[in-house]
Structures are given as C-alpha cells and as structure tokens.
Amino acid sequence: MGLSKTLWASPADYLRTHSPEHPVMFFSPETLQACAHEFLQGFPGLVTYAVKANPDEEVLENLIAAGISGFDVASPVEMDTIARLAPHAAMHYNNPVRSRTEIKHAVALGVKSYSIDSHSELVKLGELVPADGVEIAVRFKLPVAGAAYNFGAKFGATVEKAIELVTLADQLGFDVSLNFHPGTQCTDPKAWETYIFTAAEIASVTGVRIHRLNVGGGFPSHRLNEVVPQLSATFALIDRVTDDAFGDARPALICEPGRALVAESYSLVTRVKAIRDDAHVFLNDGVYGGLSELHLVGVIDRIQVFGPYGNRRQGDPVARTVFGPTCDSTDKLPTELGFPSDMEEEDHVVFYGLGAYSLATATRFNGFGDITVETVQRLVKPEAARQAIYA
Ligand SMILES: *Cc1c(COP(=O)(O)O)cnc(C)c1O
C-alpha cells in the first residue's frame, strides 16, 4: 500500500483521469481532523483513539495534529508506533490478555494504564508492573443489546467478578478505574446509560474510589443513508447520566472510539467486473478485502456509481446481489444493494464511510486485494455529491 502525494479534489476527480482497475481507498485528512474535533469539542472527558480500527500512520499523524493525545493500544507493535509518532501521548493498554513479554515491553515504554477482566491477569500485572501511579481499569460487561455485535462475547467480567477485581486491584495499590465497551456500531445510546449506572453500583458496593470511567468505543459511524448517528446527543447523555449515577464521586471520563473517529475519512472505490444475467454484480473487491466487516456489521448502502468519465449514474436503484472477486462462495455481501439501473460493466462503485476495519483487516487472498490509497481534499457525502459533481 503506497500513499501518493497528489491531492485530488474528490474521488470523481481521480476517476475522470485514472479509471483504476484495482480497488482504491480515498483518504481525506480534512474529514478525519473534523471528526476528531467533533469528539474533542463534544465529549465530556479525554478522547483516545483505538489504534486497531485503522493504524495507518497518516491517520495517526492527523489525529495527533488534531489534538488527540491518548491511544488505546493492544500490542507491542501498536505501542512502538505510538511511542515513535507521539512520545508524550498516553497509552492505555486495554487488551485484557497479555503475555509476560508483552507486559515487560509496556513497562519499558512507560505505559501507566492497563485494563483487566480476570483474576489471573491481575496477578500477572501485580508481579510485573510497579503499582505506584499505575491505573488498573476493570472491564465489566452486561447483556446489553444495541450494538452490531456483542463485544462481551470475548472480554469483560461479570458484575460480581468486577466487584472482586476492583477490591483486589485497590488492595494491590493500583489506581482503580472501570471500563466497558458497549459493542461496536452501537446505535442505541441507552446502552451507555445502563453501563454507567452499573459502574456506579460497582463503585458503591466496593467503596473504592473510581479514578476514571472509560466508556469505550462503540460510537456508530454513518453506514446507512437513513440512519445518521447523533453523536452529540450521546455525549450529552453520557455527561448527564454520569452526574446522576455518581454525584459528587464523579470519575473523570475517557472514551476510546475507533470506528466513529476514522470511518468517515475514507471511501473505497471498487470496479464492476461483470454484471451477470442482469442480477449479480461482481466487484473487484469484497469480503476478503476492504469490505471484510460487512458480514459482521451489516451492509453499507451509502454508495454512488460513476461511469468512465467520472459521470455519476443516476438511474433508479435496482436491487442486486454483490460478489467480490475471489472464488470463495462466501465472498458475497450479506444483503442486496440498490445500484442505478444504468450501471455498466467497468463502472466504479464508491462506498462511503469505510475507514474503520477495512484496510486494517484486508487480505491478499486469491491474489486480489491490492488496494492503493489516494489523498483527497474532501469526501462528499452522497446527498451533497450530485451538486458537487455537476457544478
Ligand atoms: C476495538 C476496541 C475499541 C474501538 O471500538 P470501536 O467500535 O471501533 O469504536 C475500543 N476499545 C477497545 C478495548 C477495543 O478493543
């Protein structure tokens, strides 16, 4: 993956002159910084970025430039990258399972915040990390619906277990915090409310002062035309509920979004390889490439189709099944998508809002997946695009 230094006005501007045969990701630093500012200005606490959503260095550099000063890291490679790009940034090592070698790596880099959800991992940290000035955040989970898929399936202690862990971490001399992740692409803000009230219960049962409450990632990105995320309403709810639940013992808040910070700043441009029997569309990228997440989180219908000269196809939408380029029969999008009736072979299909869990997880399976990255000044949302392209 190479990043060209040409700055295109928009994806259509590039398509007019290039007509790429391979998939192309269009990255807009301006959009990324705008998303960062939305979080920094709106969230009532410290905003950190979950590196795994998109660890591209251009992403990290633009977030740092926008003022993001903390990062959720999960591995030595992620820690080394942040330590190099932002030596003064806070690193929160919130992968609750780590080998002893990984813990020593974190200690050597000066990491001061770790999350845990099990007794054995807390004991391990107790042996390897000097407790003084170090935060242990106990991650708990609830059977809460509202997200695209359940993050509690792998990590998170039950409330009973969390109570034990908070007590023990306090006895070991750590600064005790709590964290949770409501599940990725969580479109129901009430999930945060339930979690925050439970955090206050854990604090009150244990009598331990909770330093910080990390309300996770999970903030949704804009995937469906009809469902526009209301971030500021969610921020306001988190602020109000934290006051209600904790009163005078209100902990400082942290959030660690991945998806909602980075998704909007990338669009994926794929090419139509074939339209078979007027029903099945074959694209040059699919679930083994930049669209890998659609199986788990659901389809993105914010698409536009461009003809050979960057002209936008305007026909009425026709529902079609979409396949990727590999020979694997699972390389198919989970639901049909509506494509303009005048779409033709070799047209380009732009998927908006694809910056998270796309480049980070793409494979080269079957010899496909050679995605290049181009920089654009702006990524126009579908509603606004018509005027922009025909202006
Ligand atoms: C993946 C992850 C995040 C980011 O989740 P999003 O749904 O992308 O916002 C935050 N915290 C932890 C611990 C994670 O594993």
From TrEMBL:
Its EC number is 4.1.1.17. Its cofactor is pyridoxal 5'-phosphate. The modification N6-(pyridoxal phosphate)lysine is found at residue 52. Residues 38-263 form the Orn/DAP/Arg decarboxylase 2 N-terminal domain. The keyword Nucleotide-binding does not apply. Belongs to the Orn/Lys/Arg decarboxylase class-II family. This is ornithine decarboxylase.
